[in-house]
Write a structure and sequence with these properties.
The chain has a 4-stranded mixed beta sheet with strand order 2-1-3-4, covered by helices on one side. It is of the alpha+beta class. It has a domain of 94 residues: 3-Layer(aba) Sandwich (Glutaredoxin). The longest helix is centred in the first third of the chain and has 30 residues. The chain contains 5 helices and 4 strands; from the N terminus they run αβαβαββαα.
Length: 138
């Protein structure tokens, strides 16, 4: 009977320690997801389009204008034409076009459409707090 007792205690210790490690992992993931953009961040943006359609051209023009206005010298834009490289849609889970994907700073963000609603794009990309700082500086 004494042999059964240590086994039971060992299982109890394992069961108690497992939830603690899971909660630590959740906290780290939550902290990373809540990170906000700071004024000095470098921005890596990817715009998925379907050829040179009017919506694709409008999306690129709007993105270029926003980047010049709010992210001068702190961004790169990669344009991916899915009519030429359809396999690239799977990597970023693209379901509609045009789609803008913010790769950096993390977390990854996506905006679908031609990016003509400036306020929506700024909020969606976490740029709105930076806009206030941008306007405050001469």
């Amino acid at each position: 009977m004494k042999a059964k007792s240590p086994t039971v205690k060992k299982r109890a210790k394992t069961a108690k320690s497992a939830p603690k490690s899971r909660s630590k992992v959740r906290k780290k993931a939550t902290t990373k997801a809540k990170s906000k953009s700071s004024p000095g961040d470098y921005w890596s943006l990817r715009l998925y389009v379907a050829g040179q359609t009017p919506r694709s051209l409008t999306a690129f023009a709007n993105l270029k204008r926003l980047c010049e206005q709010f992210l001068a010298n702190r961004h790169e834009i990669e344009v991916v034409d899915l009519t030429r490289e359809p396999q690239r849609a799977k990597g970023d889970e693209i379901v509609a076009l045009p789609t803008l994907v913010r790769k950096l700073p993390e977390p990854i963000k996506r905006i679908i459409g031609d990016l003509s609603n400036t306020e929506r794009v700024l909020i969606g990309m976490d740029l709105l707090p930076l806009v206030g700082m941008h306007r405050a500086t001469p």
